[in-house]
Design a protein that fits this description.
Layout lengths: L1 H7 L3 H21 L8 H9 L5 H8 L3 H4 L8 H16 L1 H7 L3 H31 L15 H28 L4 H12 L1 H14 L4 H22 L2 E8 L2 E3 L2 E3 L3 E7 L6 H18 L4 H9 L5 H22 L2 H10 L2 E2 L7 H36 L7 H24 L17
Antiparallel strand pairs: 1-4, 1-5, 2-3
Helix pairs in contact: 2-9, 2-10, 4-13, 6-7, 6-8, 6-13, 7-8, 8-9, 8-13, 9-10, 10-18, 12-17, 12-18, 13-14, 13-15, 15-17, 16-17, 17-18
Length: 436
């Protein structure tokens, strides 16, 4: 592993990509510390101390603490993720978007442009509701959060939050294009990891004060290590379908006659389902947190993290997005057609549609296991942590995102190393990303 990182510094292109990625993440962390005008940071901080285990605590975790400080990046990247979900769902039902998705790079660029417009619209809507809610917000001591309420503050807040989200969207795209890893996922990764030092300090303080016992803490640490090991093991798990290639003659040479396999990952969708599910649950509940109405408060309490309604809905959305994202990114008909075109076939299965049906049946079965695994990882640690009263919101969703993004990034780095004949990170086997 250490030799792999040492080799990474010897490749100029990979070194530039790593430095660019680190620089962009540093810009993101600097922006988290820039507050939005017109906010009493002390009063807002006192308010967030009382809601650390609610949905606002989850939003604050994904934004890397930006919401707690109400910085220019307070909305984080969630509006972009919500817009992506909406566009992908609309692609299934709107013929125009479906045609664009099949037009290759030009169609993808057009859909990306629509996603950007949707991000701005969602940011404006969220900024409006949040600014109105902040004017009515007070700290536990009774201090108002907003210095000078009114339309001037609302307009400034909407412009600031929308601009911050648009900048984060651009930042993520730049990291994906010119850096290493998926930019959007790395921004969420950086926000979660940045919250760890303060969470550890708070935990140590709780242990000293006797609010958290040593044995429960040790049990949670062992559980977290076991969950990380399970994530790494299953994320690298594959179902390999054997594929044989018939011999064919091209000119005077004979080609084919080899055996290979088609790797199907147990969790093809990776960390996308919990991110999508969290984003869909966060969007309406964030708005209701700042709306002073009995129905809004009831909905907010009903869908608060830790409640059975939230847990069941969260699990259902994760399973749905595991199947949906797998179906969008892995077209079994195209795989079967390409296999047939190059003379490949699965032993005992007729090439063409029969092969596509067989691959789809196998993929559906292993996706069910992958969806159950993702839901269990995201829900079980959160429930256990709630029983042990750990003073920070770091459940299975955050753990899955951190480990999954780290594996994908290391896999991309290893690909750069191996293509230039350098030793990778693993001497036995390879680190596989989501795409296998």
């Amino acid at each position: 592993m250490l030799e792999g990182f040492s080799n990474a510094s010897r490749i100029p292109e990979l070194r530039r990509r790593l430095l660019f990625t680190l620089a962009m993440l540093a810009v993101y962390r600097i922006g988290v510390a820039i507050p939005t005008p017109g906010i009493d940071g002390k009063a807002l901080g006192e308010f967030f101390e009382s809601v650390s285990n609610t949905v606002l605590g989850l939003v604050n975790l994904f934004s890397g603490g930006a919401l707690e400080q109400f910085s220019i990046f307070a909305l984080g990247i969630m509006p972009y993720i919500s817009a992506s979900i909406i566009l992908q769902l609309m692609t299934v039902v709107i013929p125009h978007l479906e045609r664009l998705s099949k037009e290759g790079e030009a169609g993808r660029r057009k859909i990306t442009q629509y996603t950007r417009y949707g991000t701005v619209i969602l940011s404006v809507v969220q900024g409006m509701f949040i600014s109105i809610g902040l004017e009515k917000l007070q700290s536990p001591g009774g201090a108002p959060v907003v210095f000078d309420p009114g339309w001037g503050f609302r307009f400034m807040t909407i412009v600031t939050l929308t601009s911050g989200t648009a900048f984060l969207m651009w930042l993520g795209e730049q990291i994906t294009e010119r850096g290493i890893g998926n930019g959007i996922s790395l921004i969420i990764f950086a926000g979660i990891v940045a919250a760890l030092p303060s969470a550890l300090i708070t935990t140590a303080q709780f242990v000293r004060e006797g609010q958290l016992q040593i044995l429960p803490l040790l049990f949670l640490l062992v559980l977290m290590v076991a969950v990380i090991g399970a994530i790494i093991f299953i994320e690298r798990g594959q179902r390999r379908i054997p594929v044989n290639y018939a011999k064919r003659q091209v000119g005077r040479k004979m080609y084919g006659g080899q055996s290979s396999h088609l790797p199907l990952k147990v969790n093809t969708a990776g960390v996308i389902p919990p991110i999508f599910a969290s984003s869909l649950l966060v969007f309406p509940t964030t708005i209701t947190q700042f709306v002073d109405h009995p129905y809004a408060r009831a909905a907010s309490d009903y869908l608060a993290p830790g409640t059975w309604a939230y847990t069941l809905l969260f699990v259902g959305l994760i399973i749905f997005f595991c199947y949906f994202y797998t179906a969008v990114t892995f077209n079994t008909s195209d795989v079967a057609e390409n296999m047939k075109k190059f003379g490949g076939f699965i032993p005992g299965i007729r090439p063409g549609q029969r092969t596509a049906d067989y691959i789809d049946r196998v993929l559906s079965r292993i996706t069910l296991g992958g969806a159950i695994y993702v839901a269990a990882i995201c829900v079980l640690p959160t429930i256990l942590i709630g029983y042990f009263n750990v003073p920070f919101f770091f459940g299975g969703t955050a753990l899955l995102i951190v480990v999954g993004v780290a594996l994908d990034t290391v896999a991309q780095m290893e690909t750069h190393l191996l293509t230039r004949s350098y030793e990778g990170f693993m001497r036995k086997g390879r680190v596989r990303g989501r795409k296998g």
